[in-house]
Design goal:
0% strand, mainly alpha
């Protein structure tokens, strides 16, 4: 998930803005997201996405519960009057994360991340409709650049029939994941006014564990397969790295403005491309980088325009 998809930093520790501190947090997020992608790829051959989501959520729930018990406000901070909005957020995130894990097992990792970066583009397009925000010229430019970037990454006219059969479903899943993450972000934006990061993560892990269990039972009629050996280790990596990466991004956003963090987040794309090349012999496709740059440019221009607009409104 991109920087814009992390839980809001409104309740993160407040420090003076620091690009260096943000960079250090973002380095942590790079490794977290990359390790989660590798773990998802390693698990995809033996486990369904529902099983991965179930065990990932249980690992995450145990970690979040531990942090809640040690926090100053304890479990009292999970009391909420917005259970319905938590449910809506986690339905969107559950959909997006399942699509993401499916895509990780089907297409090159760099392509998955490039599609994932379109999530803020979806937010720019849908927020005027769902949140009542104004659709500006810069948002229109961001959406156009994002769509163009997707076309460059997907190369819809550059595959043979066999390649289309092998890759297209993975690309569709990656694009759908970005849409799910966009819905997640818009709901999180509303929740962050009253809920702490730990509260949001508690309901995320709890609700998605239940959703994954129901889907796994409906899909196969059996309880999710318990991982063992190396698979158990990869499940722990998925659960731990997912939470750690989100916290790192939220902390980076608490240390510096989004227009500073967003360019750093984009560095995940070349990093995961190198990881895919080294571990899975995936080709370093120039089209993925060109498309990724277009998507990033759209995101950055939109963020910068919103920042300038906020300054003008403050007088």
């Amino acid at each position: 998930m991109t920087a814009s998809d992390a839980p809001s930093s409104a309740h993160a520790p407040s420090h003076a803005p620091s690009a260096l501190r943000a960079a250090l947090w973002m380095i942590g997020s790079f490794f977290g997201f990359s390790l989660m992608a590798v773990a998802g790829r390693e698990l995809s051959g033996d486990f369904t996405t529902f099983e991965i989501m179930f065990w990932r959520s249980l690992v995450g729930l145990a970690i979040v519960a531990g942090f809640l018990s040690l926090s100053r406000r304890g479990f009292g901070q999970v009391r909420t009057q917005k259970l319905g909005l938590h449910g809506l957020r986690n339905t969107a995130h559950f959909f997006g994360q399942n699509c993401w894990f499916y895509a990780v097992g089907m297409i090159p990792l760099a392509q998955v991340f490039a599609f994932e970066f379109t999530s803020p583009i979806w937010v720019a397009a849908l927020a005027p409709l769902l949140l009542g925000e104004r659709f500006t010229l810069w948002r229109g430019i961001a959406v156009a650049l994002g769509f163009l970037g997707v076309l460059v990454v997907a190369q819809p006219f550059g595959f043979s029939t066999v390649e289309i059969d092998a890759l297209r479903f993975g690309q569709i899943a990656a694009a759908a994941a970005a849409l799910g993450f966009a819905g997640n972000f818009m709901a999180t934006k509303r929740l962050s006014d009253t809920e702490t990061i730990l509260c949001i993560m508690f309901y995320m892990t709890l609700m998605q564990a239940v959703m994954a269990l129901v889907c796994a039972l409906a899909w196969s009629g059996a309880f999710p397969t318990p991982p063992s050996g190396a698979a158990a280790l990869w499940m722990v990596v998925v659960g731990l790295c997912g939470l750690a990466a989100h916290y790192c991004v939220a902390s980076a956003l608490g240390a510096a403005d989004a227009t500073v963090v967003a360019p750093m987040d984009f560095l995940r794309l070349p990093l995961i491309a190198v990881v895919g090349a080294l571990l899975y012999a995936e080709a370093l496709d120039p089209a993925v980088f060109v498309g990724g740059v277009l998507v990033f440019l759209g995101n950055f221009l939109n963020l910068r325009a919103e920042r300038l607009s906020a300054r003008r409104s403050r007088g």
